[in-house]
Amino acid sequence: MPDQPGKSPLISLRNALLSGLLLLAPLWVTIWAFTKIVDVFGGTFRPLYEHYLPQSLQLYSFVLDLLATITVLMFITALGYLSHYVFGKFFYGLIERLIQNIPGIGAIYDSVKQIVATFGSERKNLFNKVVLVQFPRPGCWTIGFLTNRTQGEPQARTGSETWTVFVPTTPNPTSGFLLLLPRHEIVELDMNVGDAMKMILSGGAVMPPWPHPDRKSAAN
Questions:
Q1: CB pairs under 8 A, 24+ apart, for 111-118?
Q2: Structurally, what CATH architecture does the domain formed by 121-211 represent?
Q3: How far apart, in whole angstroms, are the C-alpha atoms of residue 70 and residue 82?
Q4: 173 exposure class (CB count in 10 Å sphere: 0-12, 13-18, 19+)
Q5: Torsion over CA of 50, 53, 58 and 61, rounded to 10 degrees?
Q6: Which of 42, 101, 170, 194 is most buried per CB count within 10 Å?
Q7: Is 130 exposed, middle or buried (0-12, 13-18, 19+ CB in 10 A)?
């Protein structure tokens, strides 16, 4: 946090010192813990090293220290894999089940999870363009996402260039309507997907600025 105007140099110096300590503390604890683990492993496995290593290598203590360090690194890596793929999934599933069983909170959690799964980074390319369409009746405009311009059987059957538009519901955009509309009935917007999602989730309370700041600067 930047210093406020009018603060004395001593207060600024104190804040800088505390910030430096907060940055160094995790690093210092990590180095200290790693050093202790290496010492423990080195002392515990030293008889094993001395038994199997040639006598010529035992004369160099750094060889034993190096082997102890490699052993610790392998142990920590194996523990990381174990915690990520075994314990991590187990505890995550346990916590998720506990949250889902809480009345009210469980429903909110499931809704947020569905939103993240639907509009997460893996699927963000599906919604590549924000559009306006007349839905559910002519003269009533709604926000939608252009999902596909590919021409297939529906276009062949209708005899016109038809685009696919997904119209999400408010305030839960994980459900919605799939519309196949003629190209001339779709109005493409400059609004990005993030701003459109904010508008939909807020029920229209959050209105993205227009003209967009980027276009203002480009025009100037």
A1: 111/172, 111/174, 114/172, 114/174, 115/172, 115/173, 115/174, 117/174, 118/173, 118/174
A2: Roll (2.30)
A3: 18
A4: buried
A5: -80
A6: 42
A7: buried
Position of tokens 């187990």?
A: 90
Predicted TM-score (pTM) of this structure: 0.46
Tell me which residue of 199, 179, 97 sits closest to 137, measured CA to CA. Answer: 179
- Residues carrying CATH 2.30.30, the chain: 121-211
Give the total residue count for the chain.
220
Q: Is the peptide bond before 213 cis (omega within 30 degrees of 0)?
A: no
The phi, psi pair for 36, rounded to 5°, reads -65, -40
DSSP string, the chain: -PPPTT--HHHHHHHHHHHHHHHHHHHHHHHHHHHHHHHHHHHHHHHHHHHHS-HHHHT-HHHHHHHHHHHHHHHHHHHHHHIIIIIHHHHHHHHHHHHHTSTTHHHHHHHHHHHHHHHSTTTGGG--EEEEEE-SSTT-EEEEEEEE----HHHHHHTS-EEEEEEE-SS-TTSEEEEEEEGGG-EE-S--HHHHHHHHHTTT-S---SS-HHHHHHH-
pLDDT-wise least confident of 99-103, 118-122, 186-190: 118-122
Q: Cα angle vertex 72, ends 71, 73, to 5°? A: 90
- For residues 40 and 38, what is the distance between their CA atoms, to the nearest angstrom? 5
Alpha carbon distance 179, 191 (integer Å): 20
